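Predict the structure of Nitrogen fixation protein NifH.
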Amino acid sequence: MDSALELKIGIDNGYHFSNKEILDKLQNSELVGKLIADMPVTPLAIVWRLICISEIPFSNKLDYTQKLIEIVYSKLATPYGFSLSRDEKMFLPCYNAMVVSALCRLGRANDRQVKNAVDWINSNQPMERGIKVDLPNFNFDRYGGCFKKTPCYIGLAKSVFALQDFKEQTKKKEHETQLQKGISYLLEHKFFKRLSKDEPINKHITDISFPETYHLNSLELLRFAKKANLLANKKTTDLISHIEKRKTKDGKWKNNFNYKAEGYVAFDSGKKTSDWTTHLINEILKNKKNSH
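Done. Here is the predicted structure for Nitrogen fixation protein NifH.
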């Protein structure tokens, strides 16, 4: 087992690591070694590396991570959020939200750049149907349409995750109305289903995959359900059932979607069961049992 996962398991079990233990685990981790082997240059690669390294416990203690955050702020940050082009032309709600969540995991929720991005979500991201968004300098339509009569479900969901992560890290509730609207929208869809018929919203939403990509997947949704204390909600039942059915005969889970992109590092690759995914799901479902 990779020592970075040992850190994660220890934290989830309530173990308090000393600073020396933390640094030893990070330095001995093969996965961390892959993540810090090079510094990404292109905007997309920067985003994926940030997301991946943010999932490693205590990775904000690494000089590499702090340098990466500086690059994110210098190359992606704008007064209204995080953009792949550092202007309105390639600003996408899903990427803005994913960067916010990653930076929150890295303890940077109070940074001005993160607050700007969260404020944009609060002011502009539709959390229901039929909301007209009038932002003439933004080119959402070229990517398939983020804000049509029905908002892109991926961008909406990831924006809800970002608001939740920001709230957890800052203990501030200034965006609570928008967050609750988004939660209601996700619950209305039972997290992953169309309203019109009993089928998945899109192809990848039923995937089990980690770390996240621009595709929205079931593990992301399950993790959010835990964070928002929704595991016992009846409208979460179908999501939990779907994930439980994907368990292998030996009681583990496999990643059934392996994303490949510059800057992205898979935590568990190949066709074998995933140690990271298995631990994450078991930890969430354990909490569900404890909540009854």
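The longest helix spans residues 153-170.
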